[in-house]
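FORM 7B: Structural annotation worksheet

SECTION A. Query
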Amino acid sequence: MNKLHKNKQYYEDKDWTNEKIRQEIDNGLELLSNVNKKIVTFFGSHMIKKNHEYYKHAENLAFELGKRGYAIVTGGGPGIMQAANSGATRAKTTSIGLRAELLTDEFVKEPILTHDLSFHFLFVRRFIMHIKSEAVIFYPGGYGTLNEIFEHLVLMQTGILDKIPIICVNKKYWRDLFNWLKKNPLKQGFLKYNKKDIELLHFADNFEEIIQTIEK
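SECTION B. Predicted structure
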């Protein structure tokens, strides 16, 4: 597919687009239907290395959740994703990677996945990553992570998807962003202060806070 004309090709070759989306949804739903454990999904930066504090935190959190019988889902890449899948593998629980096939520099070769799928369309990938999860956990990250957290908020706020805990790890990292939302969009009337919507978000630093939020 010509990189300069992707949008045009998607709508001109609508049969290919429709079939590709259908196949990816079918494959994702089939995978989820075979997972008989509760699922927790991890998001966060793919740029974090193994010696980073967030990597170690995510790996150990996934390990603790795995010991409690949870399956772990990630985007199947490096950084936080690799950390969570590695923790799941140590706990001998289900470890799922839902890869973005176009992001070839984000593939991990280590044998840390019990199941993996590749997706062309990121919106399908995010849909599958969410719909069977008990909670979604967000570590610090960049554009991709921010895109994912706000999409989850919108879909739950509007009732398109069921409401589940959105857990933001590292209170200090996320504080400025959500203070900005309160000071600007909320203050200027672009957001409505809705207690139920605010309660979708949980800020946590340690395992006890996170696990308690998931299990309560």
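SECTION C. Observations
The chain is about 50% helix and 15% strand. Residues 89 and 112 are 6 Å apart (CA to CA).

SECTION D. Sign-off
Analyst initials: ____
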